[in-house]
Design brief:
This is Nucleotide exchange factor Fes1 domain-containing protein. The protein has about 325 residues and is mainly alpha-helical. About 70% of the residues lie in helices and about 0% in strands.
Length: about 325
């Protein structure tokens, strides 16, 4: 056993249990209070020589049939700190923490929130850990959890965890694509939340840059639905003042369209090219008029990207 003061953490986290709720669910903890908890963990760990022993203790608390939510939250806060330390992430599988962490995605929102964070940090650019989670069905489990989330924060954090699971791991990336990954990205792109759309487009561009997807994936297997989703978002941007003024989001959207067109242009039918050109011209004209009215808003990078997209399409028509 370590000298870590679990009781102190449990006392802190119990202050955020809703006693009026028979299920004793954890209240939503704002970022400031969560940062305080994480700071308390760092302070308590100063005397801990072997963080792997602490991870083993945290595992026992997660696996306990009698563990209440404040116990789980405290254990997760400890794990979250441990995975910041060298080699601790690599030991998650050896210490038997993969399944207990995935099980946390079926618990309260606050627990899921911290779990997504742990998953993202531990798996990012870490092939052995990605593979260990993948072997436990993490891709399906996390994807299903994201599907059940209703808030922008939780959906975007869940997608970040999926991204950390598969990015730069060729086997995991291909598995995602084979398991209707483009269809999943398309669904995220049609989300009501901008952050969710941005994360989905980031993942799509990553696949393009890494050569994970081809024109066949987009035009045949996905039947061009990804392209339709991007065009629908551009149409919406021409109608929504709020989204029209989001310069970074619109640049991301147009860059994503350009990247998709770039890998598909040689295999696109003319009617598909014409459909894209119609919307690209509409968006470019909208931006030209908008910049005349609001010259302080610099949409020139997006406008330039649209022009490049037009040139790609017209070159092969």
């Amino acid at each position: 056993m370590t000298d870590f003061n679990w009781s102190k953490l449990l006392k802190w986290s119990s202050n955020y249990i809703d006693e009026s709720d028979s299920s004793r669910r954890i209240k939503q903890i704002d970022p400031e209070k969560l940062e305080f908890l994480q700071g308390a963990v760092r302070e308590a760990m100063k005397g801990v020589v072997d963080p792997n022993k602490l991870l083993s203790e945290a595992k026992l608390k997660l696996e306990s049939d009698k563990a209440e939510e404040e116990v789980i939250l405290s254990a997760l806060a400890v794990i979250d700190r441990c995975v910041d330390l060298p080699d601790c992430s690599l030991n998650l599988d050896k210490l038997g923490l993969i399944q207990p962490l995935l099980n946390c995605l079926s618990k309260s929102e606050e627990i899921r929130n911290l779990t997504y964070q742990i998953l993202s940090k531990s798996m990012q650019n870490n092939p052995p850990v990605q593979t260990a989670f993948g072997n436990r069905g993490a891709l399906t489990i996390i994807t299903e959890a994201v599907h059940l989330e209703i808030s922008e924060l939780m959906q975007s954090r869940g997608i970040s965890a999926i991204s950390s699971l598969i990015r730069h791991n060729p086997d995991m990336e291909r598995e995602f694509v084979i398991e209707d990954g483009l269809l999943q990205i398309e669904k995220w792109m049609r989300s009501e939340f901008i952050k969710v759309r941005e994360k989905s487009m980031s993942l799509l561009r990553h696949f393009i840059h890494q050569g994970v997807i081809s024109s066949r994936d987009v035009l045949e297997i996905n039947n061009g639905r990804i392209i339709d989703a991007i065009l629908d978002l551009q149409r919406k941007n021409c109608e929504s003042i709020e989204e029209s003024q989001n310069i970074q989001y619109n640049e991301t959207l147009s860059e994503t369209l350009f990247q998709v067109v770039n890998i598909c242009k040689d295999h696109m039918k003319n009617d598909c090219k014409e459909k894209i050109l119609l919307q690209v011209n509409r968006r470019a004209n909208f931006l030209s008029n908008y910049m005349k009215i609001c010259p302080q808003d610099d949409f020139s990078p997006e406008h330039d990207m649209l022009i490049k997209c037009k040139e790609l399409l017209k070159a092969d028509m």
